[in-house]
Amino acid sequence: MSLERFLNQAVSSWMNEEGPDSDIVLSSRIRLARNFEDYKFPTVFSHEEAKMIIVNMEDILSKTHVQKFGQMELLKIDEMQPLQKRVLVEKHLISPKLAEESPHGAVLLTENEEVSIMINEEDHIRIQCLFPGLQLSEALEAANEIDDWLESNIQFAFDEKHGYLTSCPTNVGTGLRASVMMHLPGLILTQQINRIIPAIHQLGLVVRGIYGEGSEALGNIFQISNQITLGKSEEDICRDLKGIVSQLISQERSAREALRKTSNIQLEDRVYRSLGVLTNSRIIETKEAARCLSDVRIGIDMGYIENMPKSILNELMILTQPGFLQQYAGGPLRPYERDIRRAALIRERLKMELQK
């Protein structure tokens, strides 16, 4: 494996797989925050301490690994170009914070990109497991296996009363952040989302955009995650989140059915207009591309468009991001140039699929 392999493979293997309720739930993610007991936390540690954390992780990796997940590759942030880091963010393999604010950071990646372990982000270690569809329990089981492997080699910062100690107080306890990425165009088109989001917040969950905190809900894609980790078990957190997500799935399906009954021809027209834009545009911006891809995806899910896999939408949502476009171009592009390349890439990819 190499950095180039992770950059050149547009869609992680887990994104091409079908999972439970994958017409609405794109992915389930579990993230565990952990810290070494004998080192200062990343908010106050020195560059030398940051380097020692990576040396420790390299030593662990050289001696042992988790058989189930195979060999992992360690990639150092300070050895990457800005575009390379941006691509890994767009693939959800590292966070924007690790890419932009952690010069002595690193990431451990499995070959199928299902597991990534960020090093020296907000905490010394952040274990991330990504599964297709609604599979929170399965992702938690995988994260716990990685956690057990690391804990057999590392003494974590832990308090009997408070649990795992973390840089941010909101992560103290289990250190668990569970999230689900959902495609919710029905709730957008029926204008129900504005009343649903405040209700979700009142239940102790948070709703963010496609790339987490501070990002937009491009293509009608939202991340739903827990806010509280202290005083709840990992299983309780996942069960509560799954319960809310299951309700959202039901509401989204009801919204889609309502659109079919009351606005069927209008929805079908919207779907095919968006497909027309994607297959014919010569210039297209990120937001317009994401909106049209969302329309085409709901068209596939609702049977308006046949013989086109949903995975192509996952692929194009990643391929058309600014970092990927510039990576394939071999260097920086001006926004106008990116819009031209984005349109050409979408046209060519859809043409290949439609000709099958």
TrEMBL record:
Family per record: Belongs to the ATP:guanido phosphotransferase family.
Regulation: Appears to be allosterically activated by the binding of pArg-containing polypeptides to the pArg-binding pocket localized in the C-terminal domain of McsB.
Swiss-Prot/TrEMBL GO biological process terms: phosphocreatine biosynthetic process
GO molecular function, one term: ATP binding
Binding annotation for ATP: 27-31, 92, 126, 177-181, 208-213
Record keywords: Allosteric enzyme, ATP-binding, Kinase, Nucleotide-binding, Transferase
A GO term from the CC aspect: extracellular space
The enzyme's E.C. designation: 2.7.14.1
Encoding gene (name): mcsB
Nucleotide-binding found in the keyword field: yes
Domain of life: Bacteria
Top EC category: transferase
UniProt name for this protein: Protein-arginine kinase
Any Pfam family: ATP-gua_Ptrans
Reaction catalysed by this enzyme: L-arginyl-[protein] + ATP = N(omega)-phospho-L-arginyl-[protein] + ADP + H(+)
Known function: Catalyzes the specific phosphorylation of arginine residues in a large number of proteins. Is part of the bacterial stress response system. Protein arginine phosphorylation has a physiologically important role and is involved in the regulation of many critical cellular processes, such as protein homeostasis, motility, competence, and stringent and stress responses, by regulating gene expression and protein activity.
Database matches in PROSITE patterns: PHOSPHAGEN_KINASE (PS00112), PHOSPHAGEN_KINASE_C (PS51510)
Domain Phosphagen kinase C-terminal: 24-255
Motif interval(s): RDXXRA motif of the pArg binding pocket involved in allosteric regulation: 338-343
